[in-house]
Amino acid sequence: MSHTIAIDCMGGDHGPSVTVPAALAFLRRHPDACVVLVGQESLIRPLLASFPADISRRCTLRHASQVVAMDEGPALALRNKKDSSMRVAIDLVKEGEAQACVSAGNTGALMAISRFVLKMLPGIDRPAICTVLPTMTGHVHMLDLGANVDCEAEHLRQFGIMGAMLAAAVDHLERPRVGLLNIGEEDIKGNEVVKRAAELLKDSGLNFVGNVEGDGIYKGDADVVVCDGFVGNVALKTSEGLAQMLSTFLKQEFGRNPLTKLAALAALPVLRRFKARVDHRVYNGASLLGLRGVSVKSHGSADAYAFEQAITRAYEAASNNVLERIAAKLAELQSQQQVVEESV
Amino acid sequence: MSHTIAIDCMGGDHGPSVTVPAALAFLRRHPDACVVLVGQESLIRPLLASFPADISRRCTLRHASQVVAMDEGPALALRNKKDSSMRVAIDLVKEGEAQACVSAGNTGALMAISRFVLKMLPGIDRPAICTVLPTMTGHVHMLDLGANVDCEAEHLRQFGIMGAMLAAAVDHLERPRVGLLNIGEEDIKGNEVVKRAAELLKDSGLNFVGNVEGDGIYKGDADVVVCDGFVGNVALKTSEGLAQMLSTFLKQEFGRNPLTKLAALAALPVLRRFKARVDHRVYNGASLLGLRGVSVKSHGSADAYAFEQAITRAYEAASNNVLERIAAKLAELQSQQQVVEESV
């Protein structure tokens, strides 16, 4: 079956000049996929002229008259921007015309509109933002990254289920290892919410590997790391800040004088390979999980390559049936719960 | 006035073979300082033989018959190890024979014993662990890093006061910029505790610069970053994990084949300078703040150079009157509070 991705072409810092070429690159790499480009026709149409015929056939343009601003309040965007590119892209998923949507627009608005239009999956109280990070041994799915600032243990359990089903689907893992972000490996560590969440995750039927410390995220101690949105957001942004600082320092040292610049020249192929290995653009595209539809958020500053990765992430979630797997797991757990309750 | 540092020579992964040479290096660099080496005499005495006479004069050995194990429960260590090197070192501070103590031993035990022996400063409810991290523009003091897993807003205010007075004293800053770790820069971001803490910090008389995001720690957005111990610990360990991963990847790329190894040779002086700039050993030594005495925790795995930095940190806290500055600020704030209350 071919899958169609609805793309909010107006979102992000660069709009169609980035999102449309990204869509072209994505379609080239995925010959079965289709896209709907949503946004202001007058801006998008001229960019399609260069598309080869076999790709144009898989590409529909859908005009939307409004744009959600990057700093617009989610409630206002929800109320006043019913013909925005973001809203129309999400509506297409709701109506079944697309199997996933992608936007580089404002996170709060994307979350609010996705939640309002698509609704929550039964058994999930709150949506979560899940991203992929590189590790020593591969990569890890981490959630939540900022949708929820005050979580209860039950929410963390639900994040574990959603993250595990996402990892199972897109990474084709039988039993993804689920870890709980904590400040020590022992059970007695952490705050009350985390301790209770560990108990719930132990009984969840998931492959729960216990507590993971901050450094364990990058060591590859788990395939899925669960945390509340405040902690997850701090961990993610701290990582971004540190990576930026180290990269700046490395550039400064190689640029210090003619001799060090010569050394940089000699080391260039190595430095390029290193850079490619930790290229944050590869990991662009955070999934909003817990909704009855696939909605993916790209970094606002994404370039065409990075935005293409976000489209690909949406496509992989749709084509690997992430939603169905989460829903099936929730139904399975609920029926087990009922059996337990009836037998008590 | 000369200052004396009590050193727990038995703590850490390596014991006297690291702590004693570190003490020697410290004394060489600080001709006014004295140390008391605390631990098993039979192990320490032989290492002192090589000390030059002018340094031996500033170095006392104090036998302690017990050692707190790295995995020992804090409560047990407190109850059963009254003649441990850690306990005796802290006792020396309490008795005024030393102005600060340093240990690479188990953090929980050091915190529990320091708190029991030294007691809390009036006006401080909970001690906090504060460390120094490198930034794009210099360095930052960050607290708490794990002493408190469930903080109230008032605790964060107190951490702000302690961190600011530490930065003022050791960095000689008139009005250190105090930031609150949060998941957005706007006032409306974050959980309830953080929002309330921001209000308290605004009214604290400190130079409060508002919310700092994870990446702002390394950008140098503040001189002091305040957070609860769970979040701080995750941010710190996540940073350690990421730095380790990047360093491993860089080594792997430079070690890939004879050509890349040649490039590594050409780049060696640059890579060495880069490494020196972000050498975590330079930042070793976390201060336990809020106590009526200076107690500094070194990484358990510290080598002699790293442990020397922790001794230096303790010495600088003592010689710059960090405790007196924190106590004076607390008294000043308390008297202002009384004036306000009386005038109401």
Q: What's this entry about, in short?
A:
2 copies of one chain form a homodimer. With 344 residues, chain A is of the alpha/beta class. Chain A is built from 13 helices and 11 strands.
Structure description:
2 copies of one chain form a homodimer. The first copy, chain A, has 344 residues and is α/β, with parallel strands linked by helices. Chain A has 13 helices and 11 strands. In chain A, strands 3-2-1-4-11-10-5-6-9-7-8 form an 11-stranded mixed beta sheet, with helices on both faces. In chain A, helix 1 crosses helix 2 and helix 7 packs across helix 8. The longest helix of chain A is centred in the last third of the chain and has 26 residues. The model of chain A has no long low-confidence stretch (mean pLDDT 94). At the A-B interface, helix 9, helix 10 and helix 11 of A face helix 9, helix 10 and helix 11 of B.
Helix/strand-derived category of chain A reads alpha/beta
* Average pLDDT rating of chain A: 94
Specify the oligomeric state.
Answer: homodimer
Widest beta sheet: strand line-up of chain A: 3-2-1-4-11-10-5-6-9-7-8
Most extensive interface: A-B, 57 and 57 residues
How far apart, in Å, are the first and last alpha carbons of chain A? Answer: 45 Å
How many DSSP H or I helices of chain A?
Answer: 13
Strand fraction of chain A? 15-25%
Secondary structure: number of strands of chain A: 11
The radius of gyration over CA of chain A amounts to 21 Å
Helix content bin of chain A: 40-55%
Low-confidence stretches of chain A: none
Gross geometry of chain A: globular
